Amino acid sequence: MVGTRVRVPFGRREVIAVVIQGTAESALTDKQLKPALEYLETEPVLPDTLFRALIWASEYYQHPVGDVFATAIPKLLRSGAPTLEIREVWRATVAPDPDQLTALRRAPKQQQLHAFIESNGQVSAAQIKQAGYSLSLARQLEHKQLVERAEITAVDSVSLAQTNKPGSAPLRLNSSQQDAVDVINASSEFHCYLLDGVTGSGKTEVYMQAMAKVLDAGAQCLLLVPEIGLTPQNLSRFESRFSCPIVTLHSGMTDRERLRAWRIARSGEAGIVIGTRSAIFTPLASPGLIVIDEEHDSSFKQQDGLRYSARDFGIKRAQLESMPIVLGSATPSLESLNNAIAGRFTHLKLTARAGNASKPRLILSDISASQLDEGISQELLIKIDKHLQQGNQVLLFINRRGFAPVLQCLQCGWASECTNCNARLTVHAKPPVLRCHHCEARAPIPRACPDCQSRNLATLGAGTQKLEAFLKARFTKTPVLRIDRDSTRGKRAFQALFDRINQGESCLLLGTQMLAKGHHFPDVTLVAVLDADIGLFSPDFRGQEHMAQTIVQTAGRAGRAEKPGEVIIQTRHSQHPALVNLVNASYEDYARDLLKERAQSKMPPFAHLALLRIESTFPDRGFNFARDCLTQANALQTDFAAIELIGPLPAPLEKKAGRHRFQLYIKCGSRPILLRYLQQFTQALERVKSPAQTRWSLDVDPLDLI
Ligand code: ADP
Ligand code: ZN
Ligand code: ZN
Q1: Whose CA is nearest to atom 26 of ligand 1?
Q2: 467 in a domain, yes or no?
Q3: Predicted TM-score of the model (pTM)
Q4: Which residue of 59, 147, 330, 407 has the smallest Cβ count within 10 Å?
Q5: Statement to judge: residues 687 and 615 lie in one domain
Q6: What's the confidence (pLDDT) of residue 161?
Q7: Parallel, antiparallel, or unpaired for β 426-428 and 433-435?
């Protein structure tokens, strides 16, 4: 039956497969056809609607359907684990021998256990032990045929027993929040909502109250967040509000934990599923609502294998499963904003902060003529001092981890470079080592220049570690907390830092992108973006969009509670129209301007893009193959005049992890035409033999072109 798993012979191996289609006849001979070895179940693994969404993904992303299913279902299911948990239970026999029952009077312990099992209907071995009985006692009852063992399929409900806990009361919504909730709850049909709410406007409260209605109607909610480990407080807000079982799905879980959460979601027992990107594939018995928080976040796009966007897949899924979907952000992606402007999504706006907090003021600080200490102007240092003196917290944002971005020889100009990538090696201080942020390469820090043997080596620029050292020396009385991928490696490390911040003592927070993500820091009153120019001149067409999102999100950490906030943005280009616009107008005005530019240059969302990526260990093989691909593409072009081809070109990061990379851009104003073209193009490519150690992959709707 379609959608069920079968064990099939595959070459010399046996693999678990999912039945995609049935057919009564085949042109193949009986010898060519092989029978399946085993049917693993009689019910489909996934609901039909989700099954169809995966078939859609396979066609849309031009990705092998088997690999789509492998990405979408838990690993243990691919090695044959049952979709339902099988548990052994003990229960009383239906027609026990009356003599044996009477005889129990002489064995009071056995009698008690029998009564325990009978009154509970069915109990697990663990419950028997928990109640103070031994299993050998149970076996004695089994021998007398008073109790029996049975295997039942059920989800593991042990830790779901939290259902009777009273939830914390919902907040009184302000009128724009109330409007948003009402609009979302107005219909249970498919519709897309863009919840465009400034940072601190109370989007989470809107999600929660919209979900409450869905749960009341007996349906389930799926909430996608960028990174669960980074927003534990968000999770606890849901846990304390709702009494229904909530399961989470994220990369930090073991395969068993994932399977368990998946089963509870699939059975309908979980009211709410909260997870990161791949949780969008979680089956729901009664789908009611999808919410994608921080919908602009790049983590929703998978960057290898099946290069899907969880947001776009979520929309398709909501459509096939007939439920509403809410995309929330303070800085919506240009795609979503454009959909809202065009009327395809309903645009819900929260323009004010919730509660008493007011919006922070953004100030551009031109540092082109300033004397800088590790990238910080004297003016800013004085400001930091002032805020700290007042007992507040200060947050400094720099998107560069490590000690310094490069080690250089002051004598001959040599710079530390990765041998596997076209990139510089970052200097790390603890432990002292050179590290490549694009591959795993590490190298010891040389004492002398490898080219001229001079000992005159210096680190150029500053990363979080260097700034941490500088700030500790400069503000000796203030704790400096560094938050980046290196300082939060341990499982509990981020939580510990976070708890410390929330105790409210005056401190300096210093960190990367991680700090920009949805946290609520009530005591931060000053936020400084140390270098806004990194994004301003990015080669990527989304560079300015991402820069603005980062600045606005980081700025959004300031003044979230009673205390007003101030935001300083350091730049060498304080007259740059994009920055001026961002600071003086709103994110939306700024984004509308970017949309105009995209319309003029015919870039997404006004055209659709696919990227053929070619990688090879050898540069010439890679490039020649890329040219062969272009020949294939050109051959199709007679039927597809609307397709524009650009390239092949070396990727912006031409060499990464020892592979030379080339790109061919495929652009088209029409999505259906592009899809048809890509179908034929991939078929053509599959017929071309690629040289050894050279491979291609297709990225539909690429996020960054690096
Ligand atoms: P966002 O996700 O939009 O950045 P949050 O949902 O984190 O904002 O809300 C910011 C703060 O405002 C939280 O502390 C939240 O409890 C509070 N808040 C939200 N809605 C209300 C409301 N209606 N009244 C008072 N406080 C609210
Ligand atoms: Zn040198
Ligand atoms: Zn490298």
Answers
A1: 355
A2: yes
A3: 0.88
A4: 59
A5: yes
A6: 36
A7: antiparallel
